[in-house]
Write a structure and sequence with these properties.
Radius of gyration: 21 Å
CATH class of the largest domain: Alpha Beta
Order of helices and strands: EHHEEHEHEEEEHHEEHHEEEEHEEEH
Strand order of the largest sheet: 7-6-5-8-3-2-9-10
Shape: globular
Number of domains: 2
CATH architecture of the largest domain: 2-Layer Sandwich
Low-confidence stretches: none
Oligomer: single chain
Distance between the termini: 50 Å
Largest sheet: 8 strands, mixed
Mean pLDDT: 92
Number of strands: 17
Structural class: alpha+beta
Strand content: 25-35%
CATH topology of the largest domain: Heat Shock Protein 90
CATH superfamily of the largest domain: Histidine kinase-like ATPase, C-terminal domain
Helix content: 25-40%
Bound molecules: adenosine-5'-triphosphate, magnesium ion
């Protein structure tokens, strides 16, 4: 059930301007779909996202009585305890912030509800009508930043904004390989993934030459689990832009000590200035993770990290010891 958050909780949430680009809209909608347990997602973008963005999912849906509430500020069905966050969203302001910047058409049907409903919202005006609809949620965002020229002018060309969206969606898919996802930008299919494992997504997004040189990693110790792929020592890259981390399934920037733990395992194996590639999903009890530190939730802090760092170091070292260096090769182009 969607509720308004109590004022004392609102004060604690690290809020800020969330929507400054089309990719921000897609991130909020994609996170909502994943939180709703969607296993199939369709994303469409026109004019770099300025003309239209559509995200549809087969998740839990929103009951028709709650559609209005979903678009209000600080209304959420998710958060109960800031120290114990299990969902990507928790502030109750994603849809509200999109609504401030665009025209929104929200269509939804929870599987158990007979018919669907659509709420259209533009500035203060909303309109609700009922009609048949497939189970799940579809959000259509149009006229993004039409009445906000400052934000519109700060954008890059539509093609560049479109590329940012492809990059963002790829990032989420790498961490959620089980989700089937299709992304279409200006009529061109950019991602078509039928669902699968880390290896399938790595192959789709990075190509088979890279994917074939990634080692599957799966380790668990007490409450910690680490899953993903890491490159064999003969594959490396001069940047670390393809070494990706999700903590409790949230894509995040690396907390520095954790990054160092992974890099240390490669230290003797890679030339200076070269970095491994891979994608890691690390799951920890939520009391080890402070999420609420930046408005876009990408920066997090580990609490009492010692045991976590030990576990990750050992897992990565163990993986590399089992696959000794064959011959150092630069990354294939
Ligand atoms: N795709 C969806 N499927 C099901 N419910 C949804 C979907 N999108 C939004 N909702 C409902 O609308 C509520 C408000 O969404 P909104 O994105 O504004 O806030 P949030 O996800 O709770 O928090 P955050 O601001 O951190 O994203 C959600 O809590 C959820 O109940
Ligand atoms: Mg949200």
């Amino acid at each position: 059930m969607i509720r308004k958050l109590p004022p004392e909780l609102i004060r604690e949430i690290a809020a800020g301007e969330v929507i400054s680009s089309p990719a921000d809209v897609v991130r909020e909608l994609l996170e909502n779909a994943l939180d709703a347990g969607a296993t199939r997602l369709y994303i469409e973008l026109w004019g770099g996202g300025l003309d239209k963005i559509v995200v549809s999912d087969n998740g839990l849906g929103i009951p028709k009585e709650e559609l209005e509430l979903a678009l209000e500020h600080h209304t959420t069905s998710k958060l109960t305890d800031l120290q114990n966050i299990h969902t990507l969203g928790f502030r109750g302001e994603g849809l509200w912030a999109i609504r401030q910047a665009a025209q929104v058409r929200l269509t939804s049907r929870p599987p158990q509800q007979l018919g669907g409903a659509t709420l259209t919202a533009f500035q203060d005006k909303t309109e609700l009508y009922e009609h048949p609809a497939p189970a799940g949620t579809r959000v259509e965002v149009t006229a993004l930043f039409h009445h906000l020229p400052a934000r519109r002018n700060a954008l890059e060309a539509p093609a560049a904004e479109g590329r940012k969206v492809v990059h963002l969606v790829s990032r989420y898919l790498l961490h959620r390989p089980e989700v089937a996802l299709r992304l279409v930008v200006d009529g061109e299919e950019k991602i078509a993934h039928a669902g699968g494992g880390f290896a399938e997504v790595a192959k789709l997004l990075w190509g088979s030459v890279v994917a074939n040189r990634l080692l599957p990693l799966e380790a668990a110790e007490g409450p910690f689990t680490l899953r993903g792929l890491l490159s064999r020592p003969e594959l490396s890259r001069p940047r670390r832009d393809r070494l990706l981390l999700a903590l409790n399934r949230r894509p995040v920037e690396w907390p520095e000590p954790l990054l160092q733990a992974v890099l240390a395992a490669y230290k003797e194996l890679l030339p200076t200035g070269q970095f491994p590639l891979g994608v890691l999903n690390l799951d920890l009890p939520s009391e080890h993770l402070l999420i609420n530190t930046s408005p876009d939730k990408s920066r997090v802090r580990l609490i009492r990290p010692e045991a976590i760092l030990g576990f990750v170091s050992q897992a990565v070292q163990g993986l590399l010891a089992a696959h000794p260096l064959a011959r150092a090769l630069p990354e294939p182009t």
